[in-house]
UniProtKB/TrEMBL annotation:
Residues 91-351 form the PPM-type phosphatase domain. Its EC number is 3.1.3.16. InterPro entries: PP2C, PP2C_BS, PPM-type-like_dom_sf, PPM-type_phosphatase-like_dom. It comes from the Eukaryota. It catalyses: O-phospho-L-threonyl-[protein] + H2O = L-threonyl-[protein] + phosphate; O-phospho-L-seryl-[protein] + H2O = L-seryl-[protein] + phosphate. It holds the Pfam family PP2C. Gene3D superfamilies: PPM-type phosphatase domain. It comes from Rubroshorea leprosula. GO terms for molecular function: metal ion binding; protein serine/threonine phosphatase activity. Its cofactor is Mn(2+); Mg(2+). This is protein-serine/threonine phosphatase. Belongs to the PP2C family. Keywords: Hydrolase, Magnesium, Manganese, Metal-binding, Protein phosphatase.
């Protein structure tokens, strides 16, 4: 995401001006290109033509052409008076349990209505929401401090809301420094941090550590974050390039994560490059009707359950009772049943007021012995037992 991001645009950033004349010219050109493409008999058309940064009209024409030619699907082209932009209806539920640990060191935050929380002091696209999971270690101080302050650092950053990506990255580092400056806290404690910020239909997930966010898209698991384990190839390379070492999967033989806030006994002076990084990695998605819910959880969940298994469980539960809080409790219960060794914190965020629809499959001349939904359930069970 670059500077000048406009959340009101469903197609991302539009570069250059688009008046009526050049929009018409570009659409005529794209229609000519479409006719040429349809005459090609060998190979598929490029799959990313719709990423051309011209204007919404031309991009939509090419995207529809790609879909029709690629898989033989006729795209419904709405009339001008039809509503085409999806806006999520946000609701969430959470569950946190101490598990087999002696102390509870997790924290989390759920804000379904950001405008109400910020009291209209900041302008942004509605609906807006903020969620976070913070898995503490070495004490609760770091997780509590970051949970209480991270949103403030985001919305008060000079880049917000013009460039939210920069604001979030800056906020993680500012929160880490502010924690180090608080003499009343144990700055040797640390925490991972996973946040999800929603503006309109834009979802931005930021992660530093081994918590994980997983999008449920019509029964399929889409991972929106990467676990920052020291043995992960990219993290291992970064750590070793900065003089760090990994012993038996632990950073400098002490920490089982490669990124965290706090842990100032393992960091150098502020601003210096350090094997233990507080900088988050970000992933962004434009939500559509296909996106049903987001699961956010600490590693106590993912240590014993695959992403697909969790999505399968949540979707099945939502179809029964449509309650995200009961879904989060079910995931925690299942993780405890599978003998997790850690604290457990889970948030389930739904993007619709309605339960997920049953997955319909096209009629086939061959008899099916299992439905598409059944296949997803089976895959989740198999993943969970692997």
């Amino acid at each position: 995401m670059g500077t000048g991001m406009d959340f009101s645009s469903p197609s991302g950033i539009i570069e250059g001006s688009c008046n009526k004349d050049n929009i018409s010219a570009m659409e005529n050109q794209n229609l000519e290109n479409l006719e040429n493409v349809k005459q090609v008999t060998n190979g598929k058309p490029p799959r990313h033509l719709s990423a051309s940064r011209n204007c919404i009209g031309s991009a939509r024409l090419i995207a529809e052409a790609n879909l029709e030619l690629d898989v033989g699907i006729v795209v419904h082209k709405p009339s001008s008076d039809e509503k085409t932009e999806f806006l999520p209806v946000l609701r969430s539920g959470s569950c946190a349990e101490i598990g087999p640990k002696q102390y509870m060191e997790d924290e989390h935050i759920c804000i379904d209505n950001l405008a109400e929380c910020l009291e209209a002091t900041v302008e942004f696209t509605s609906p807006g929401a903020f969620y976070g999971v913070f898995d503490g270690h070495g004490g609760i101080d770091a997780a509590t401090f970051i949970r209480s302050n991270i949103l403030k650092f985001i919305v008060e950053d000079s880049h917000f809301p013009i460039c939210v990506e920069k604001a979030i990255k800056s906020a993680f580092l500012k929160a880490d420094y502010a924690f180090a400056d608080d003499s009343s806290l144990d700055i040797s404690s640390g925490t991972t941090a996973l946040t999800a910020l929603i503006f309109g239909r834009t979802l931005i997930v930021a992660n530093a550590g081994d918590c994980r966010a997983v999008l449920g898209r019509r029964g399929k698991a889409i991972e929106m974050s990467k676990d920052h384990k020291p043995n992960c190839t990219s993290e291992k390379l970064r750590i070793e390039n900065l003089g760090g070492v990994i012993y038996d999967g632990y950073l400098n033989g002490q920490l089982s994560v490669a990124r965290a806030l706090g842990d100032w006994h393992m960091k150098g002076p502020k601003g210096s490059a350090c094997p233990l990084s507080a900088e988050p990695e970000l992933q962004e998605a434009d939500l559509t009707e296909e996106d049903e819910f987001l699961i956010m959880g600490c590693d106590g969940l993912w240590d014993v359950m695959s992403s697909q298994c969790a999505v399968t469980i949540v979707r099945k539960e939502l179809m029964i009772h449509n309650d995200p809080e009961r879904c989060s409790r079910e995931l925690v219960r299942e993780a405890l049943k599978r003998n997790t060794c850690d604290n457990l914190t889970v948030i389930v965020i739904c993007f619709s007021a309605d339960p997920p629809p049953r997955i319909e499959t096209p009629q086939s001349r061959f008899r099916r012995s299992i439905s598409a939904e059944g296949l997803n359930v089976l895959k989740g069970v198999l993943d969970g037992n692997s």
